[in-house]
Amino acid sequence: MAVNHYENFPVASILVPARQRPAVEALYAFARSADDLADEGEATSAERLAALNDFRRGIDAIERGETPDDPIFGRLAGIVREYGLATSLLRDLLDAFAQDVVKTRYADFAELCDYSRRSAEPVGRLMLQIFAADTAQHRAWSDHICTSLQLINFWQDVAIDWRKGRVYLPLDECERFGVSEAQIGAGYVDARWRALMRFEVERAQTWMLAGAPLATALPGRFGWEIRLVVQGGLRILQAIEAAGYDVFQHRPRLGAIDWVRLAWRAALMK
After folding, report:
1. What is the per-residue pLDDT across 83-124, written as a single tens digit (0 to 9) for each?
2. Helix (H, G, I), strand (E, B) or coil at 157
3. Burial code of 172-185, b = ≥16 C-beta within 10 A, e = fewer?
4. What count of Cα atoms within 13 Å lies in the side-chain half-sphere of residue 24?
5. pLDDT tens profile 228-255
6. What angle do CA 143, 237, 32 make, to 5 degrees?
7. Cα–Cα distance for residue pair 118/130, rounded to 1 Å
8. DSSP collapsed to 3 states, 145-183
9. Do 142 and 89 form a contact (C-beta atoms < 8 A)?
10. 228 near 262, Cβ under 8 Å?
């Protein structure tokens, strides 16, 4: 799900079986469009929230059994009915996008996890529903992977989010490590910054590894998709560390060589 905050989520790649690919693409179109409403362009906050309310009305129509004329919601209605998708998860995504419009700071990790519960975890759970793999254990693993991916996006995008007026680093942890907002704004990397980011990177890695068993528990091509997602997230964390935690000058991205390495590491997962 390669929307702005979830660029490390799986997209409708060749690993996704042809039967499920239209459903994944329809879900992506919904999330991508809603995220853009909240995050892109020059609209005011009031205009962004109004547009997201229009998306909620689209969900209302689907829940009434209607098929909206809008292509995004027309396709979404079809996959909701075909796969029995929980529309509450779609609403959670919209709530998270709306939160991005009005909330720019997070007091502690608990607040960040609450955001991730609505911004990231619904994507994984919807994917499990599409692939008929929606069990309690699979959901628990998926939630860990998705939260880790959300955290990874935050840590690689610290500078980008700062320019948008947002800080996702928990403020109590910034204070504990002696990192101020002025330092973030200046992009100043010192021992305090490295200590903070080392802590954040290690926690994201712990969450990813806690969810990694999902990749080998799921059969077939979807399982391989998740293997690559897990390995991709871990690779980005390694790149942050290798750059001395300087995400201001060295935003990590996956290149062609990385994907070769990821495929090899995915094949070794047990």
Report:
1. 999 999 999 999 999 999 999 999 999 999 999 999 999 999
2. coil
3. ebbeebebeeebbe
4. 21
5. 899 999 999 999 999 999 999 988 877 7
6. 55
7. 18
8. HHHHHHHHHHHHCHHHHHHCCCCCCCHHHHHHHCCCHHH
9. no
10. yes
